[in-house]
Amino acid sequence: MSLLGTFEIGTRSLRAFQAAMQTVSHNLANVNTPGYSRQRVTFETDIPDQTGAFLLGRGINLSNVERLRDRFFEDQWRRESSVKTSADATAETYNQIETILQEPGDTGLNSQMDKFHTAWLEAANSPNDAGLRATLRVQGKTLVERFNATRHGLETLRTDTDEKIRIAVVQVNSYAGQINELNRSIKQSMLQGFSPNDSMDKRDYLIGELAKLVPVNTVERQDGGVAVYVGGVPLVEETGTSTVVADFQSSGTGMVALSWENYDEPVDFDGGKIGTLLSNRDTLIPDVINKLDALAQALVDGVNALHRTGMGTDGTIEIKGSVPWVGALEANATAELNGVSIAFSAGDNLATVVAKLNAAEAQTGVHARVVDQRVSLVPSATNPQTIRVSDDPDGVFQTLGVVNDFFQGEPGNFQLSDAVASDLRHIALSATGAPGDNAIARNIAALWDQPMMENSQKTFNVFHQEFLTDLGSRSQAATSNADNQGFLVTQIDNLRESVSGISTDEELSNMIRYQRSYDAAARTIRVADEMMQTLLNLVQ
Amino acid sequence: MRITNNMINRDVVDDVHRHLNDMAILRKEISTGKRVQSLSRDAVAATRSLAFASAQSTLEQYKVNTEESLAWMTATSAGLARVRETMQDAKLQAQTGATDTVSEDTRKSIAINVHQLRNTLLEVGNSEWNGSRLFGGHKTSTPVFTSDGTYQGDSGTLQRDIAANETAVINVTGQRVFLEGTNLFQTLTDLETALNANDAPGVRSLLTQLDEGLNQVLTVEAEMGAEINRVENTQTRLDELTVTLTERRSANDDADVSKAAVELTNLDNLYQSALAATAQLFNHSLLDFLK
After folding, report:
1. Could you give phi then psi for residue A244, rounded to 5 degrees?
2. pLDDT for B74-127, tens place per residue?
3. Whole-angstrom Cα distance, residue B216 to residue B210?
4. What pairs with residue A370 in β-bridges?
């Protein structure tokens, strides 16, 4: 027991309350810092002095600065926000698909198909009218360009998704590295007996961010480090990190494939954002592309099949092969030109085929010649006839590319056939070539009333509309799913916040508390000083 | 439960977002008048709207088709009427020429009239509508009859789709009108020859043929009239269908603007209250009382 003891208690109190004040200001300063957990100083009484029969208190000691957080809420929050990020990613993908499809609207495929349909009906009214033919050709072009643009948009969405996956993988590896670094420094601090709260916050925040990308399991170790497992593979462990490799597939799809650098385990990212992006890239978007491809292909094939059997308006036109042909026929074949059957043999090349076609020139009224390595058919000089491939069971004319198709190309790159693009008169509205005949135009218009899709079950429109209903419902579900998950995450986050979050009012009231305590401690010192003065005066 | 600054802040931001989002949707409904804005808002209504749009577009085209068909048929009908009048005229002339009391000179002048009538028939037979020959079958761009009355057309029927699964044949061939059964040109040529030859019995003998020819034209004309009636009925039906379809589409697509406007006002009030409450909330803090 001594006066100096009182001094000492006062000094220690000042230090303790200064520390408390510093923690308060640290909390106030970090009120908006993501991942920050509220910190609190805990005090304890110092080991008392033994004075005779009494134990006299020796004042306050700062025992710990702890961070307030509930592990259960943290884990739950991490899990649910992982689900939310993935739900958001799906909803966004659907949203983008909808934007690309532009339905319902005047620019969508539905409207373009309608316009193409009515253009055929209209052309059938006056099969000889060049204006209507021009309209028909423009509508055909617009329709396939819309198909192409839609497909291109979806393909781009797919590559964008792939890009997102690559970026996310880079993030995963970077998070893993940072977590590993933090683990190491936390471990060192703890060995020295410190509680590195801010580093731990930062690490837990990074694990939270990581969990949004991939589903994680965490194990807290005795030494303060946290091991992070992804799909059974240790991404971060005591000895270091594993790396996810995003490699461009050798198959040439231009998309990345994911693998572990040092593990043979398959990469299992199901549930997180990356897993969802992968399934969007490989299932969701391709499904939409396939549906629209099927529609476009059926429409093009249906129109071509009928168009091929018809005739244009003018006997003077030339039908030229759409592709240079350097090969030879693989098997014997027959084909009919203007109703005259012509036999070809295996091994026939361009010259032989042309010779055989010309051998029948007197009957067919069609002359064949070679232009730019292609077969070109023109009406014969002596007995000019309109050119018409009346039957092509073995696909000879198809191979030569001299079939009078309306469209050509493949999904993503459909266009008007060279013949139709070059001359309106090539559009075959009639079966006989007579100017008033509209049989083919009517038949093509009637395609819209026939079940052309899915094994003759659905018309073009029904197929397309059912596809849109399905897509729309799924999009609707994805959006509401993301919304609901958002509410859930908010609720859990509120629980989490109620433990770890900072209330400024609370901190301010603590501030006053510690300020008063500091005042009191200072006062103690002053009184002790006065007592000391009194004592010294006695001695003088 | 401890309430922290972040919780309040996030609640406020969430509320503001939700209100603004709801208000944006309502505002768009009101400004476009459409309830169906996107597939994901209401997939069923959106695709039903597309189906209505397709049906409407086809229906509009069918209406154009009936319009054009009727125009062609009316032109044909007018041509047929002219043929009938010409034949009636020819019959009157023949009756006069068949009378024994008529002089040779009169018969000769009647013969000139009959020649003119034959020319009229040829003219009708070769007549065009909108650049196309009416009576040539599929051969719509070349003369239908030569001057000696030989048919150059074909037997093609001009078919038009005028409604779903409904077609109309809008033409009759010159073969059917002028040649099949009684050859009108030949009959008039024969009449002219008989008149010129002052052959009263000969003229008399042609009267039956003229009657038959007239009947032939009357039959075709009646058929064409019936067909025109049918197409007109279809046209009326298409108009009615358009009205029904428009109503159904509107019921499916259109926003209840007054309801949406009331909802928007409600939301706006809520939004303002939310903002006011927020402002109140942040007005007070312990800081206010720390001096």
Report:
1. -90, 130
2. 999 999 999 999 999 999 999 999 888 889 999 999 999 999 999 999 999 999
3. 10
4. A375
Residues of B in contact with A104 (CB under 8 A): 36, 38-39, 46-47, 49-50, 53
Q: Is B158 left (phi over 0), alpha (psi -120 to 50) or beta?
A: beta
Rounded CA gap, A311 and A317, in Å?
11
- Could you tell me the CA-to-CA distances from A128 to A312, A429, B118 in Å, in that order? 10, 9, 30
pLDDT digits (tens, 9 = 90+) for A310-363: 877 765 566 777 677 778 888 888 888 877 888 888 888 888 888 888 888 888
| Token digits of residue A315 | 């006997």
Structure-token pair, residue B148: 């000696």
Q: Which residues contact B251 (CB under 8 A, 6 or more apart)?
A: none
Report the C-alpha gap between B178 and B139 in whole angstroms.
Answer: 16
Report the mean per-residue pLDDT for chain A. 88
- Can you tell me the distance from the alpha carbon of B223 to that of A134, in angstroms, rounded to the nearest whole number? 35
Give domain status of residue A413, yes or no.
no
Beta strands A226-230 and A216-220: pairing type? antiparallel
Element (H, E) at A39: strand A39-45
Tokens of B101: 């009391």
Residue A368 included in any domain: yes
> Does residue A342 sit in the same domain as residue A489?
no
Report the pLDDT value the prediction gives residue A314, as an integer from 0 to 100: 61
CA A420 – CA A304 distance, rounded (Å): 11
- Kindly list the residues from chain B whose CB atom is less than 8 angstroms away from the CB atom of residue A100: none
Residue-level pLDDT at A399: 76
Q: Could you give the CA distance from residue A107 to residue A153 in angstroms, rounded to a whole number?
A: 14
Contact residues, B window 141-180, toward A, CB-based 8 Å cutoff:
141, 154, 156, 158-161, 164-165, 171
Q: For chain A, what is the domain count?
A: 3
Strand ranges across the sheet with A366-371? A319-320, A374-379, A366-371
Q: Could you say which of B2, B64, B131 has the minimum Cβ distance to residue A122?
A: B64
User: Where are the extended beta strands (E) located within A60-154?
Assistant: 60-67
Task: For residue A127, give its domain range.
Answer: 70-312+419-500
Name the nearest CA neighbour of A227 among A189, A187, A276: A187
C-beta of residue A161 within 8 angstroms of C-beta of residue A95: no
Beta strand residue intervals within A238-330, DSSP E = 240-241, 244-248, 256-260, 319-320
Is residue A108 within 8 Å of residue A102, measured between CB atoms?
A: yes
| Alpha helices by DSSP H, A360-459 | 361-364, 396-400, 418-422, 439-446
ipTM of the complex: 0.86
Cβ <8 Å between B51 and A472: no
**Other CB atoms closer than 10 Å to residue A426's CB: what's the count?**
26
The residue ranges of DSSP E strands in A48-134, in sequence order, are 49-51, 54-56, 60-67
Out of B14, B61, B137, whose CB is closest to A118?
Answer: B61
The answer to whether residue A259 sits within a structural domain is yes
Q: Give me Rg for the CA atoms of chain B.
A: 38
Does residue A1 register a pLDDT over 70? no
Residue A225 tokens read as 């480090």
Q: Is residue B241 within 8 Å of residue B21, measured between CB atoms? A: no
Fold classified for B62-250? f41 fragment of flagellin, N-terminal domain (1.20.1330)
Question: How many whole angstroms from its chain centre is CA A391?
Answer: 47
Question: Which residues lie closer than 8 Å to B13 by C-beta, 6 or more apart?
Answer: none
Closest listed residue to residue A215, CA positions, set A82, A77, A73, A71: A82
